[in-house]
Amino acid sequence: MLDFLLHLEQSLPLLLDQYGVWIYAILFLVIFAETGSVFFFFLPGDSLLIAIGALCSTTDLITLHSVGLLLFIASTLGYTVNYYTGRALGLKYFNEHSRFFKPEYIVKTNHYFMKHGGKTILIARFIPFVRSFGPFAAGSGHMNLMTFGLYNVVGGVLWISSLLGVGYILGNTAFMLADLF
Question: How far apart are CA 78 and CA 146, in angstroms?
């Protein structure tokens, strides 16, 4: 099962054949889980988005606009859930008896997110491991919710649209080259 999840992008045509429009729900859950929890950092977000874009260029069963909107919603909601999880649980792991998490770390995190939080949330979308931990750290560091929300939305639009777009262009190019030869 873990191997299947790690290489989900390779199974997209098969999943589309087997589940039809339910592929939208599957993709929503994968992107939501990857962005909404620090425990699912291993899910293939970037490669999956590129593969979805390529698949959209070769089939009429899913469209680029509808899957783009759906995955934007999934990624934005995921980041928001992860932010609130960090806000609620972050301080519980920072105490004077913790081996790795010290109270002064939360103070440093607060200062960091006050100064660089927006850039971090935006750039974290494009870095796989950081994508799952950035919003949790922002919540733990009590980053301003309005600032977080703005960069969450902008980052989600840029991440989803750019990678789906790259996949769509690559899929169209491969499709056209196959017609030529």
Answer: 16
- CA–CA distance, 44 with 46 (Å, rounded to integer): 6
Q: What angle do CA 119, 124, 130 make, to 5 degrees?
A: 135
This prediction's pTM? 0.81
Tens digit of each residue's pLDDT (9 = 90 or more) over 67-106: 999 999 999 999 999 999 988 887 666 555 666 666 666 6
DSSP string, 149-162: HHHHHHHHHHHHHH
Collapse the DSSP code of 58 into the 3-class scheme (helix H, G, I; strand E, B; otherwise coil) and give the result: coil
Q: Do 120 and 138 meet the contact criterion of CB atoms below 8 Å apart?
A: yes
Can you tell me which residue has the tokens 């997209």? 12
- What range defines the domain where residue 118 resides? 2-180
Q: How many other CB atoms sit within 10 Å of the CB of residue 90?
A: 19
Instruction: Quote the CA–CA distance of 83 and 48 in Å, as a whole number.
Output: 23
**Could you give the CA distance from residue 157 to residue 125 in angstroms, rounded to a whole number?**
10
**Which SS3 state, helix, strand or coil, does residue 37 take?**
coil
Closest CA to 94 of 111, 80, 108: 108
Say which residue the tokens 């690559």 belong to.
170
Q: What is the dihedral of CA 47, 52, 54, 56, to 10 degrees?
A: -170
Overall number of domains in the chain: 1
Nearest partner of 80 among 15, 157, 167, 153, judged by Cα: 153
